[in-house]
Amino acid sequence: MEGGRPLEGTVRIQGSKNASLPLIAACLLIPDKCVLEDCPDITDTGYMSRLITSAGGSVRRRGSLSGTGVDMEIDARHINESRMPAKYVGAMRSSVILMGALLGRLGEVYVDYPGGCVIGERPIDLHLYGLERLGAQIWIEGSHIHAYADELVGAEIQFPSVSVGATQNTILAAVTARGTTVIRNAAREPEITALCDFLNRAGADITVPDDFIQQGKLIIKGTPLSRLHGVTCSVIPDRIVAGTYLFAGLAAGGSIVLENTPIGHLAGVCDIITRMGGVLSGDEESGRLALLAPERGALKNVPYIETMAYPGFPTDLQSQLMVAACVAQGSLTIKETIFSSRFKISEELQRMGAKLALQSEDTAVITGGSALEGRNVIAKELRGGAALVIAGLAAEGITTVSDICYIKRGYQDIVGDFAQLGAKISYD
Ligand code: UD1
After folding, report:
1. Architecture, CATH, for domain 17-234
2. Which residues share a beta bridge with 282?
3. Residue 428, helix vs strand vs coil
4. Fewest C-beta in 10 Å: which of 30, 40, 179, 180?
5. Which residues line ligand 1 (CB under 6 A)?
6. How confident is the model at residue 120 (pLDDT cuts 50, 70, 90)?
7. Could you tell me which of 97, 95, 99 has the C-alpha nearest to residue 82?
């Protein structure tokens, strides 16, 4: 890409990666046909489809009506295989939530330890805790996990710390468990609510109380498997992709409009963007959100940000914010509280001229006001990779980002989207 030009134009936000993956897993539980509209056409949804197929299901894909993404028809009437192939499980962290779905469906599952981005240690103890509380027996041998349940039984589950994936896994297993499950300290991300909505429409009985965001409590009354039925549902738009494009707008400057934006899921992010000098105007109902970026000299840093579970500032936007902070005036301290190794782009940004220092493993200090220069850089993980693209758009000269396979795990067409926003960018 040739950076240093402001962005201008309109782009439609794709369906959410982190919402679609648990919905695909949920389809495995439902002994019927379901249609997921507006799924993002990314590597991870492809892997998840293959896992459905290897369990005995079938997946048909067609271009979605919105023009961004695919509609997936998942037929899980004949699921009969509890052994998940290591090839796809190892490639993707989210495969671990197939455990809850397959335990609910077949009472048994064999998986390998899941893969995913190298952003630090990613244990699965909370997943196993939730499933064991529901009566699953779990054996681990090397990297192989075998879980079995004669019958899943509802339970009171208090998570010692918040995990999105463990909450999803537990919900999936609890849907058909006998009796009632209460999950406390559940993750409150919009992707959790979207999973509960989908399952309820398919016949499950999950109560998401009005004060869910404050209390983090879910109540799931077990429903017999035979009462779950097919449903058609649209995947919610991707708040992280929307946030990525907003930080790109701030860093490169200009004026952009995002369509199909989940504005209500971005309150904390929009607040930071406004405090940095961006002018936002949006309409929650239509999902149209316009950003007018300030002139480079008027873009200013907020002093301190900590990543937090929802509704706090998302760890998945930390790298993108970091890039905008490099070119803004003033300094920003970022504390990463969710993952242990999420400053992997700092060296690449330094090579582009950014002034930043790692104060400790979890704290980075960015001294803004840098004029970034184009370089050849390498993506090492999904969100950091997207942030390097933003850096390239903000930098003078040519930037090449390689290993974009990481970015394709979560962004359907980042190059096409930025080209639509007027950037000089192409695939090599
Ligand atoms: C999900 C998102 C990911 C996002 C993350 C945090 C998907 C597909 N991925 O990942 O994009 O960055 O939420 O918002 O939705 N932990 C444990 N034990 C466990 C599970 C997690 O200690 O069994 C820890 C993790 O190491 C991490 C923290 O809990 O420090 C939060 O992780 P979690 O919410 O589980 O993230 P994921 O579900 O993997």
Report:
1. Alpha-beta prism (3.65)
2. 289
3. coil
4. 179
5. 18, 21, 93-94, 121-127, 163-166, 187, 191, 315-316, 338-339
6. low
7. 99
